[in-house]
Amino acid sequence: MKVVPSRSSKTPDAAPTHKSSSAMIEIDHVSQIFQTSTRKDHLALSDISLTIEDGAFVSILGPSGCGKSTLLYIVGGFVSPTSGSARMKGKTIAGPGPDRGPVFQEFALFPWKSVLGNVMYGPRQQGVRAADAEAQSRALIEMVGLKGYENFYPKELSGGMKQRVALARTLAYHPEVLLMDEPFGALDAHTRTRLQNDLLNIWERDRKTVLFVTHSVEEAVFLSDKVVMMSRSPGRIRQVIDIDLPRPRRRTELLLDPRYQKYVVDIERMFDDGDVGLGT
Ligand SMILES: Nc1ncnc2c1ncn2[C@@H]1O[C@H](COP(=O)(O)OP(=O)(O)OP(=O)(O)O)[C@@H](O)[C@H]1O
Predict the structure, then answer these.
(1) 232 neighbors 280 (Cβ within 8 angstroms)
(2) What is the pLDDT of residue 75?
(3) Which one of 32, 36, 64, 66 would you pick to mutate in the ligand 1 pocket, going by the greatest count of ligand atoms within 8 A of its CB?
(4) Regarding beta strands 83-88 and 57-61, do their DSSP bridges make them parallel or antiparallel, or are they unpaired?
(5) What would the DSSP string read from start to end of 138-173?
(6) ipTM score of the complex?
(7) Separation of 69 CA from ligand 1 center, angstroms?
(8) Distances from the Cα of 49 to the Cαs of 84, 115, 175, in angstroms?
(9) 32, 34, 216, 280: which to mutate for ligand 1, most atoms within 8 A of CB?
(10) Distances from the Cα of 16 to the Cα of 7, 208, 212, 227, 275, angstroms
(11) What is the pLDDT of residues 73-101, one digit of tens each?
């Protein structure tokens, strides 16, 4: 396993193996302090620097409360860092934008809209003609495996199906970066596995840049080019690990692959170690 030690004063290189490198996201000495009524000056992130290359699939792993979601929200433009900066293609991120599509665990679908209506919403907002938006949306619904469910409403769908709609709805904006915050965390193991496979298939078609927060070591290793290991609160980057496994990846093949097993075991050992082992 190739482990790239990451000190907070350095910028770990998260270059993918499959595209010529150009920085899509640069996180530059970001710290985040939260103020609440009960906890003043809570340092959630401490001096985080990370470069994510165009087309890379990068997962963030770390103990509960180490600031994974906060980091994702900063890249999403939903949280403005206390110090340092986040840039996308060299431009400082000053707020949310359609170039960065969030897919979060809470599905956030419009309950009053059908599957088709939910997916069409983005393109229609962007001024795409209704007929074109519908055609694109139907194609995306098929791509996420929901053909035949176009007229269903969210309450008529399972958790896994809702998550597929959420993914299709985000893809309909044509974001350059997908920000995924434990998108499969609430799903049963079987559905989760299927969605991981489908996400990889979709990703392998157009190789969007993905920043993916998860608690699952197996999920991170299976999906990613790089795994960013954060230490416990206040969150720092402890290591950036290259996942040097061939693509396309097939889960059943990987499970038997000693290299995959070694990545999983080595990363789990890091969780056993005190620096990343416990939440706050
Ligand atoms: N808006 C906020 N106001 C105050 N404190 C916050 C806010 N958002 C997050 N925090 C605090 O910042 C720390 C990091 O939270 P964050 O949700 O980023 O962690 P996480 O690693 O994603 O956790 P988990 O794995 O449990 O989802 C926590 O201590 C949390 O309580």
Answers:
(1) yes
(2) 97
(3) 66
(4) unpaired
(5) HHHHHHTT-TT-TT--GGGS-HHHHHHHHHHHHHTT
(6) 0.98
(7) 7
(8) 9, 39, 23
(9) 34
(10) 20, 11, 15, 11, 27
(11) 999 999 999 999 999 999 999 999 989 98
